[in-house]
TrEMBL record:
Cross-referenced Pfam families: SH3_3
Keywords: Coiled coil, Membrane, Signal, Transmembrane, Transmembrane helix
Organism, scientific name: Vibrio gallaecicus
Ranges in a coiled coil: 92-165
Membrane-spanning ranges: 170-188
InterPro entries, per the entry: SH3-like_bac-type, SH3_dom_pro
Primary location group: membrane
Signal peptide: 1-20
Domain SH3b: 20-86
Subcellular location: Membrane
Bilayer topology term: Single-pass membrane protein
Record-given protein name: TIGR04211 family SH3 domain-containing protein
Length: 203
């Protein structure tokens, strides 16, 4: 029996908690409109919060202001409820619209920035590739230049050696010709006999 009573009590206590849901008090407030400049005068209606009115006059002694509402009714309301600024009920939709516009602009700006970033990254990759190709070409050209310079030095060395050999050959050839000429000049008088002179001087 005790268990049954405990279960019933637990169910009764848990039911409101399970049924309870989050809600908010509606932002539809109002202030009374009187026929005169204080609360002793007859109430002739009410003005909703955030409603646009025209201020006709204000009574500083009683703290009430005479207003004209959007339905053409004249009456007195407490001056503390009359504000120069629009109420939050009117400003909130404008703020929400401005916020939505700002979010849309921010999304467009981010999309544009992402597109520009992607374009810059693609351009950077392309330029890095071009730089790599240029560096490779420069390396190949440098190797070719080094090879050409080495070959050029070797050819110059061969040409200098050939010049020296040619000069030596010319020198030996000239010396041989000169030696043969000298030898021939020395031997020729001995080979050819001299003619005897006649007594009268004629041969």
């Amino acid at each position: 029996m005790k268990k049954l009573i405990c279960m019933v009590l637990f169910t009764m206590l848990a039911a409101p908690a399970a049924f309870a849901q989050d809600r908010y008090i509606a932002d539809k407030l109002f202030t009374y409109m009187h026929s005169g400049p204080n609360n002793t005068y007859r109430i002739i209606g009410s003005v909703d919060a955030g409603e646009k009115i025209k201020l006709l006059q204000a009574n500083k002694q009683t703290g009430y202001s005479e207003v004209l509402d959007n339905r053409g009714r004249k009456g007195w309301v407490e001056s503390k409820f009359v504000s120069r600024q629009e109420s939050m009920a009117l400003r909130l939709p404008k703020v929400e619209k401005e916020l939505a516009d700002v979010k849309a602009k921010l999304a467009n700006a981010r999309q544009s920035a992402d597109s520009e970033k992607a374009g810059l990254a693609s351009s950077l990759d392309s330029r890095n590739k071009q730089i790599s190709e240029l560096e490779q070409n420069y390396s190949e050209i440098s190797q070719q230049l080094t090879s050409s310079q080495t070959e050029n030095r070797e050819l110059r060395a061969k040409i200098d050696t050939q010049k020296d050999d040619l000069l030596l050959k010319y020198f030996m050839y000239g010396g041989g010709v000169a030696g043969i000429g000298l030898l021939f000049g020395l031997l020729l008088p001995h080979i050819i006999p001299r003619r005897k002179k006649s007594p009268n001087g004629w041969s």
